[in-house]
Amino acid sequence: MQCFDYPFDSALILKKKRALRRELLACEGLVPKKIAILSGSTVGEIKNILELFLLNAGIRPEFYVGDYALFYEQLMFDADGALRAFAPDVIYIHTSAHNLGNLPLQSDSPAQTEEKFAAECARWQQMWKAAERFGCPVIQNNFELPGVRVMGNLDAVDAHGRVRFVNRMNTMAAEWAAEHPNFYLHDLCWLSASVGVDQWCAPAAWYAYKYALDMQYIPLLCHSVSGIIKSIFGRSKKALVLDLDNTLWGGVIGDDGPEGIELGMETPTGMAYTELQRYIKELSGMGVLLNVCSKNEDSTAREGFRRADSVLKEEDFLCFKANWEPKTHNIAAIAKEINILPDSLVFLDDNPAEREIVRQELPAVTVPELTAAEEYVRILDRGGWFEPTAVSADDRRRSEMYRQNAQRAAAQQSFGDYSEYLRSLEMRCEAGAFDAEHAERITQLINKTNQFNLTTRRYSAAEVETLMRDPGYITLYGRLIDKFGDNGIVTAIIGRKNGTVLDIELWIMSCRTFKRDLEYAMFDRLVEICRCAGIRTICGHYLPTAKNLLVADFYATIGFEKVSEDASGAADFRYEIPETRVLLNQVMDTISL
User: Fold this and answer.
1) For the chain, how long is the longest CA-to-CA vector?
2) Torsion angle of the four alpha carbons 325, 329, 335, 339, in this order, in degrees rounded to the nearest 10
3) Which residue in 57, 59, 46 sits closest to 10, CA to CA?
């Protein structure tokens, strides 16, 4: 729903929240998640608006709202067991500078100010440590700057200054987040600064209602928090589709020529477009896939990227669609070529008519509303569509991996026999049990994979770490390497032991490596592990979603027997491990790690 895309109308969202909620709840395919909000101040309206942003992202939240200002006690003690009984998928600790204690006083000695700071750090860290026992992601606000400064500018420097105290607390919280992969920092300090501390910190709202921010900024806060939650559950976008004329440069290259378009540092407009290209280049660096969709002659369009002052070059793009076909056709073709769903795309175009056509004909594609060129970067940045919770080495190599896939597709055209083509790739699968070295990438893969995902279960970083140590589970990840390059870790299996039975709770695979016999290599390895562990039966389950229909019959293709199926299409399968067995994988080497 476009009203939830930046720049959004906060007043409209607050006014129409009930009607918007009814409309969003009618959407199909919503994924249920349990969200616990622990309170450092009043959170009633924050819960209401956060629900809207999550519903808009395809997540149907069920909320546990903690008692007013008892965030510390509920995490430390959970005296009535209500939080544990709720079994949250995410805990959001909504605190602010109002919840800081041990603040320095002018009468304190330097040693006393340090003791107070250490005590306050210990208080928060003790609480975050206690939160780990709930086994789910924890989102914690950092702290906004004080609205007043007793010492003026010296407040940021002197040991007695509260600005300095807040800055040090924020640094401590950031370091904790960097060291604890299931702990996510929500940058309230930056968010409040983006609108101004005077506007954010509304004394009237605090004194009258104990809201730690002006009510008008609640949608901004909830949009920001929802960005982290969306990323945790794999709902961030994956690819950017870009118009060219008056979007990546000023002017029309077909009319003005490459030398006539505005780009570079000579004019204010050129500087704006150059800054946008720099920003997009950085997005690409953390794994966002870049594509062109422009009504242009192909050769003419490419000339713009050959200018010395163009930050983006032709090689930065996976798909380059410069032609006179409808943009909706080209965007659909891009999604198909890079093998992702349209709801993973963001389309940037200066032309309001083109934007509206795409919204109408490809409603799953996100289409930001653009204004002046100098605002393009801000709109793309504030939208939060590509927000990560972590950026792995595989993320930074994603564009390279997709280009290698294009090379594989080109190579396939020269083979009439698919098996011969697979053998020509010289593939090898490196498979091993989950371990600390690869836990971050495995967790990311689990929470982002939607198509080859048989049960669509999600696991937090803490749960993955627990599984690594639990003898009651068999875990297996797979890395695929071939003559074109390293695809990275692209598949994972989690199975729970029950006597001589293994129950597969999760099997996922990146869709860009499906049907290359990696699924066979992984199953062969799983069967071998089960045989060594005394497992005689493997059970699999398929839970249908709008996105995983391609694997509805997957278990049947590898030898499982379907034992039940309900009206929704959910099915159970069983595989009895035979005494002797022919390996399914005939085309790649499997290396056990």
Assistant:
1) 84
2) -100
3) 46
What does the DSSP assignment read for 486-519? EEEEEEEEEEEEETTEEEEEEEEE-GGGTTSSHH
Written as six digits, the tokens of 100 are 């800081």
Provide the 10 A C-beta neighbour count for residue 103: 16
Query: In which region does residue 2 sit, left (phi positive, over 0), alpha (psi from -120 to 50) or beta (all else)?
Result: alpha
- The sign of the CA dihedral 397, 402, 407, 408 is positive
Distances (CA, A) of 424 to 122, 414, 428, 505, 513: 58, 11, 12, 34, 15
CA distances from 164 to 40, 104, 143, 315, 577 (A): 22, 10, 12, 45, 64
Phi, psi of 253 (to 5 degrees): -65, -30
Measuring CA to CA, how many Å separate 53 from each of 220, 236, 511? 10, 13, 28
CA dist 593 and 584 (Å) reads: 20
CA atoms within 13 A on the CB side of 353: 1
Q: Are 256 and 282 in contact (CB under 8 A)?
A: no
Q: Is 389 exposed, middle or buried (0-12, 13-18, 19+ CB in 10 A)?
A: buried
Contact assessment for residue 541 and residue 570, using Cβ atoms and an 8 Å cutoff: yes
| Contact in structure between 235 and 57 (CB atoms under 8 Å) | yes
Task: State the distance between the two ends of the chain, measured CA to CA, in whole angstroms.
Answer: 46
> What are the CA-CA distances from residue 417 to residues 138, 413, 422, 481, 512 (Å)?
50, 10, 9, 21, 20
- Report CA Rg, the chain: 26
Contacts of 485 (CB under 8 A, 6+ apart): 400, 401, 404
**Mean pLDDT per 10-residue section of the chain, whose length is 593 residues:** 89 96 93 96 98 96 97 96 96 98 97 98 98 94 96 97 98 96 95 96 94 96 97 93 98 94 95 98 96 96 96 96 96 92 96 96 96 96 94 85 82 86 92 92 87 88 90 96 91 97 95 89 96 96 89 94 94 95 91 85
Query: Cβ atoms within 10 A of the Cβ of 163, count?
Result: 20
The two three-digit tokens of residue 530, written as one number:
């089960």
- Crossing angle of helices 44-56 and 218-232, in 10° steps, is 50
CA distance 71 to 291: 45
Quote the tokens at residue 255. 């009319």
Euclidean distance between CA atoms 284 and 391, whole angstroms: 12
The two three-digit tokens of residue 78, written as one number: 């959970």
Taking CB atoms within 8 Å and a gap of at least 24, the contacts of 6-12 are: 6/223, 6/368, 6/379, 6/382, 6/383, 6/384, 7/369, 7/379, 7/382, 8/219, 8/223, 10/216, 10/217, 10/218, 10/219, 10/220, 11/216
Q: What are phi and psi of 357, to 5 degrees?
A: -60, -45
Handedness of CA 583, 585, 590, 593 (dihedral sign): negative
Which residues are within 8 A (CB) of 438 and not within 5 positions of it... i.e. 6 or more apart? 432, 477, 489
Q: How far apart are CA 133 and CA 182, in angstroms?
A: 11
Determine how β-strand 183-186 pairs with β-strand 589-592: unpaired
Q: What share of the chain is helix, strand, coil (3-state, %, to 5)?
A: 45, 20, 35
CA–CA gap between residue 460 and residue 328 (Å, rounded): 36
Residue with tokens 């997009």: 280
